[in-house]
Amino acid sequence: MKKNRHSHAMGEVRIIAGLWRGRKLPVLNAEGLRPTTDRVKETLFNWLMMDIANARCLDCFAGSGSLGFEALSRQAQAVIFLEKFAPAANQLNKNLASLKSANGTVVQTDSLGYLAQPNPNAPFDLVFIDPPFHCGLVPQVIDLLAKNQWLADNALLYIETEKDHAPLTLPEGWQILKEKTAGQVVSRLVRINGAS
């Protein structure tokens, strides 16, 4: 029997450190949903160790919510999770409820459409950009974030791409602080300098 393309069987992600250290959260096993591996996540949050507490975070392609939940566990002030796929967005809400966290907000939306509007909130200190691979979304997201006042001065962006992704073109004053390749995944930490 052919498996349904959007199989709703469950997987899980583990929170590595912080308030909910060791907690496992159920996630959908849906096509294109690719939780960041523990190894990559550990590297990222080591990079962010001094920057995560009290940060306002935006998780642009939340999926499993792995990065946003880890940020909340490590005392981020707030996380907005953007997720287009309704069952995944529903699961994010269930996981927030099970963690009893009032600091996470799930918006079921197309991320590009959402970012194309001027930012209605306070600007974000930290943005996670981990889109589906091979869709060419990263340059568009960077452009919209820069254009529509989504970023605080000196904001940090975590960008995860496939290894064979075209070289990133960053706006003037943006700088790659860290870069690491693990298997087929390239992780980058970028800082924007001053107002964008």
TrEMBL record:
GO molecular function annotation: 16S rRNA (guanine(966)-N(2))-methyltransferase activity; nucleic acid binding
Reaction(s) catalysed by this chain, per the record, are: guanosine(966) in 16S rRNA + S-adenosyl-L-methionine = N(2)-methylguanosine(966) in 16S rRNA + S-adenosyl-L-homocysteine + H(+)
Keyword annotations of the record: Methyltransferase, rRNA processing, S-adenosyl-L-methionine, Transferase
The record ties this protein, via Pfam families, to: Cons_hypoth95
Q: Which domain of life is it from?
A: Bacteria
Enzyme class, top EC level, equals: transferase
EC number assigned by the record: 2.1.1.171
Q: Check the record and name the NCBIfam families matching this protein.
A: 16S rRNA (guanine(966)-N(2))-methyltransferase RsmD
Which family does the UniProt entry place this protein in?
Answer: Belongs to the methyltransferase superfamily. RsmD family.
Q: Any idea what job this protein has?
A: Specifically methylates the guanine in position 966 of 16S rRNA in the assembled 30S particle.
Name this protein carries in UniProt: Ribosomal RNA small subunit methyltransferase D
